[in-house]
Design goal:
Layout (H helix, E strand, L loop, with lengths): L1 E10 L8 E6 L4 E6 L2 H11 L9 H11 L4 E10 L2 E8 L4 E4 L1 H11 L2 E5 H7 L1 E2 L20 H6 L3 H15 L4 H4 L2 H5 L1
Helix pairs in contact: 1-3, 2-3
Length: 189
């Protein structure tokens, strides 16, 4: 059975730690955390914030290619965990399934707004019960498949982390593609 979840946060204990994306089941109290890379974290944050960029990222190109082939992304699912690595798939409305890294699948889901699910066996084995236990992040009144926005994302974080999200949002507001073109190596030449 596939359990609907939503992205409720990305966190790292220290700046040196790899970020962990947190998925919470919509109609229950289990939370699943998965490590993702820094680049994937940035792309997921951009996708969740609907950040407009002059040229499409890979996940946007993938989504447009799927549509050009006459299909739609129905959902993405975290399907398994083997040898410490989570597995996922992209489910198309034509019945086809495409193998994917979970981070790529989640970025695609945030881009196209499709449903995110996790196999119940994965949640049973690797999920933990939300320590708050109040269901405040369950989102039971939300439409199935809706991805949490950056605004709701920061509201669900403990108060001491919401300031960091606000600072990140401020940085995104002033970010341009030129910031990515010249690195320290280019400045020396």
């Amino acid at each position: 059975m596939r359990v609907p979840v939503r992205i409720v946060g990305i966190q790292a204990d220290t700046p040196e730690d790899d970020p962990i994306v947190m998925l919470r089941e919509r109609m229950g109290g289990r939370v699943l955390g998965m490590w993702i890379g820094e680049q994937e974290t940035t792309l997921l944050t951009f996708a969740m914030a609907n950040t407009e960029i002059p040229r499409p990222f890979t996940h946007t190109t993938l989504w447009k290619a799927i549509q050009a082939a006459g299909a739609e992304v129905q959902s993405v699912c975290v399907t398994a965990q083997r040898d410490g690595i989570f597995w996922a798939e992209i489910v198309l409305d034509n019945g086809r399934h495409v193998d994917s890294r979970p981070s790529d699948a989640l970025i695609l889901a945030a881009t196209c707004g499709c449903e995110i699910t996790v196999e119940d066996a994965v949640l049973n084995a690797f999920g933990v019960v939300d320590p708050r236990g109040d269901g405040s992040a369950a989102g039971s009144s939300e439409v199935a498949g809706e991805v949490a926005s950056v605004e709701s994302f920061s509201e669900e974080l403990p108060g001491d982390l919401s300031g960091e999200i606000d600072a990140f949002r401020e940085m995104l507001d002033h970010l341009s593609m030129d910031d990515f073109l010249d690195g320290p190596e280019d400045e020396k030449n």
